[in-house]
Specification:
The structure is a single chain. The chain has 65 residues and is mainly α. The chain has 3 helices and no strands.
């Protein structure tokens, strides 16, 4: 649960902006979307391996220049 204290005389738009920023940083929506449907552990592992290969390929291409 996010709690945003609003100070006296503070603009509501500014408080709303702080709430949105804090909401994005906590990655609440991302976790909700992940829990929406079940993904098999093998699929999760495969995605991690593919991402690692992609990042490694980019780094090696940068080194070669």
């Amino acid at each position: 649960m996010l709690i945003i204290p609003v100070k006296d005389g503070e603009n509501i738009d500014r408080a709303l902006k702080r709430f949105k920023r804090k909401f994005d940083r906590t990655k609440t929506m991302r976790s909700l979307r992940e829990r929406k449907e079940f993904t098999k552990p093998s699929v999760v592992r495969r995605k991690q391996i593919q991402k690692a290969q992609y990042v490694q390929a980019i780094r090696t291409s940068e080194e070669k220049g």
